[in-house]
Amino acid sequence: MQKFCEILKIREGQRILDLGGQVAIWNSIDAKLDITILNLPGIAVTSLPTHHNISFVEGDACNVTGMQRDDFDIVFSNSVIEHVGPADFRARFAGEVRRLGKSYWVQTPSRYFPIEPHNGMPFWWFYPKWLRAALIRHWKRSLPAWTEMVEGTDIVSKAEMRRLFPEAEIYVERFWGIPKSYVAYLAR
Predict the structure, then answer these.
(1) What angle do CA 172, 174, 176 make, to 5 degrees?
(2) How many helices (H) and strands (E) would you count in the chain?
(3) Which residues lie closer than 8 Å to 11 by C-beta, 6 or more apart?
(4) What pLDDT is attached to residue 182?
(5) What is the C-alpha to C-alpha distance for residues 16 and 67, in angstroms, rounded to an integer?
(6) Which helix (H) or strand (E) covers residue 102, if one does?
(7) Which residue of 35, 85, 108, 123 is 20 to 30 Å from 11, comparing CA positions?
(8) Which span out of 21-25, 94-98, 119-123, 150-154 was modeled with the highest average pLDDT?
(9) What gap in Å lies between CA 141 and CA 54, rounded to an integer?
(10) Distance between terminal CA atoms of the chain?
(11) Residue 107, C-beta contacts closer than 8 angstroms, at least 6 positions apart
């Protein structure tokens, strides 16, 4: 969030649309913001105290209704694009980000980071498909909801982020020199 504030020059009162987010991530920012959090029905945790002006909207981030072009100063999304579905859904998601915000910040994890952030497995994306499938079958028995989330994760490459957000800069977050995540951002 520090890099987000620094690059996008976050200021008091900015209007932000958070696609798929939660209140907790915003509490690390001192400037009081006007934040709209859009999530699928029943996902948002609305009871967390905050100093920001936050409203909650239920909807589909790949097809946002009731909001117009450039309604927000910034559209923000942290580790959501890899959960929206196949490539055509990711393109629709990117289109909504680009339509709704004057600026944006879209982050997704890198496949090259040694620990996969959704399931905690080392080098998950390099396992053979049969091994990943076997592990998922095993997990389904004891952790069905979590396994559904893992199954619904499609890692998004840096090259795909460039295609989806052609006018954006790509920031590579690194940990010990290893790409941890990619952020497509447009700062206006």
Answers:
(1) 160
(2) 5, 7
(3) 31
(4) 97
(5) 12
(6) strand 101-109
(7) 108
(8) 94-98
(9) 37
(10) 18
(11) 77, 78, 79, 173, 181, 182, 183
Distance of alpha carbon 55 from alpha carbon 18, whole angstroms: 10
pLDDT at 115: 80
pLDDT of residue 187: 94
∠ CA 57-147-152, nearest 5°, is 55
pTM of the model: 0.89
187 phi and psi angles, rounded to 5 deg:
-110, 110
CB burial of 104-115 (b: ≥16 within 10 Å; e: otherwise) equals bbbbbbbbebee
pLDDT score at 139: 86
Separation between Cα atoms, residue 155 and residue 176, nearest integer Å: 21
